[in-house]
Amino acid sequence: MTITITAFERSPDRGRGLARDMRVRWALEEVGEPYEVRLVTFAKMREPAHLALQPFGQIPTYEEGDLALFESGAIVFHIAERHAGLLPRDANARARAIAWMFAALNTIEPPIFDRALATILERNEPWYEQRLHSLELTIGKRLADLSRRLGDADWLDGAFSAGDLLMVTILLRLKGSALLDDYPNLLAYLARGEARPAYKRAFAAQLAVYTAASAG
Amino acid sequence: MTITITAFERSPDRGRGLARDMRVRWALEEVGEPYEVRLVTFAKMREPAHLALQPFGQIPTYEEGDLALFESGAIVFHIAERHAGLLPRDANARARAIAWMFAALNTIEPPIFDRALATILERNEPWYEQRLHSLELTIGKRLADLSRRLGDADWLDGAFSAGDLLMVTILLRLKGSALLDDYPNLLAYLARGEARPAYKRAFAAQLAVYTAASAG
Q1: Residue A144 sits in the same domain as residue A204
Q2: Which residues belong to any copy of the GST C-terminal domain (chains A, B) (predicted)?
């Protein structure tokens, strides 16, 4: 059955791989599943056809036969559950890898995403510096905890898992800020993620979409 | 095997059921699993023994034999996967229920939690009114989308699931604000959640902890 995902016709991140379709592309590349992409504009994301697939008008979505899914975390989990390579076989190790998926999305991503939004939407507000400082304090605490837990390991809990895949895509949003500078082990962790052939294929695919849109 | 979770010795929400152990208690009550609770102070949450269980120094944690888990979403999923009653048996319906779990935690919870934090931490800042307004705009959009999708249904996708359980615990944080007033179907949805016997038992259990701490 053909897998079809949705992605931005013209991603606001200019092809830097920060849009949430990147996670799904990477997961599909890790397990070797081909997929098709339907590009959507912001206007189209609020039309009934897209809202039927994604109640909050976001990307990505995932269609495969009768199944329609939304939420990048749920889509990555669905892929990981049905194919070898993204979740350990041992039941306890699998449960811990899933805990890292939720930690990435619910504990690490919110302040990092808030910071990204603030740098766009609040840059000219009188409180911008103070708000940025407060967000960066929160992010710094999370990174310190994450760095201590990762230690000298390659991945968060044993072999590379869907938890690492989500965590890497989230931490990549901090590249170019100074926030990761104090944590060489997190920088090396990100580099290990980016070096995976499946990551590179997924990154190239989403970049090609942006490049084509810009040339068009 | 005995299940042990952690919870605040003295919850900052004063027993209103908003701390994240409530989700885990409710899930365990839904599936009829007994559990023990180890209470922790904020100081204890930063000690090595707790950080070994929860890298970010939060509650709840979940211990069962050799397995130690963190992240409320992952713990609820673990319970739902191992017991009937919180996830549909049909594979596609199960995947959609999991999508609602991720949507609750990653799309609905962040702005609602940010608003709760802002009302505590930013109340005296010069930007408070504007920041609150901006957060409430975001929350309002999410609620409008959620209300439209729920429609006249009792639950988000067929029978009550772990997705509803998480969504209800998150929306309950808005009770007492005016944000839900425009959405009678969401208010009725919350009331259906609170009326479940398992919810009531879980709520009473967490309230008893707070009451004991206050009397002590």
Answers
A1: no
A2: 90-211
Task: Give the model's confidence band at B89: pLDDT under 50 very low, under 70 low, under 90 confident, else very high.
Answer: very high
Contact B71 A146 (CB under 8 A): no
Name the minimum distance, in Å, from the CA of A215 to any CA of chain B.
33
Q: Decide if pLDDT at A216 tops 70.
A: no
φ and ψ of A38, to 5 deg: -105, 120
CA distance A78 to chain B (A): 7
Chain A contacts of B78, Cβ < 8 Å?
95, 98
What mean pLDDT comes out for the span B104-113?
A: 96
Q: Does the distance separating the beta carbons of B145 and A57 come in below 8 Å?
A: yes
pTM score, whole prediction:
0.97
Mean pLDDT over B83-89 rounds to: 97
Indicate the number of domains in chain B: 2
Give the nearest chain A residue to B127 (CA atoms): A127
CB contact at 8 A, A98 and A105: no
The answer to whether the CB of A87 falls within 8 A of the CB of A160 is no
User: What average pLDDT does chain A have?
Assistant: 96
Domain hosting residue B55, numbered range: 3-85+197-215
Same domain (yes/no): B105, B75: no
* Strand order across the beta sheet in which B67-70 lies: B36-40, B3-8, B61-64, B67-70
Q: ipTM of the assembly? A: 0.96
- CA angle, corner B172, sides to B120 and B170, nearest 5? 85
Angle formed at CA B68 by CA B20 and CA B12, multiple of 5 degrees:
25
pLDDT digits (tens, 9 = 90+) for A35-56: 999 999 999 999 999 999 999 9
Q: Does residue B181 share a domain with residue B106? A: yes
Same domain, A205 and A185: no
CB-CB neighbors (< 8 A) of B96 in chain A: 67-69
**Interface probe, candidates B56, B130, B143, B150, chain A, greatest A C-beta count within 10 A:** B56
Is A99–B146 a contact, with Cβ atoms under 8 angstroms apart? no
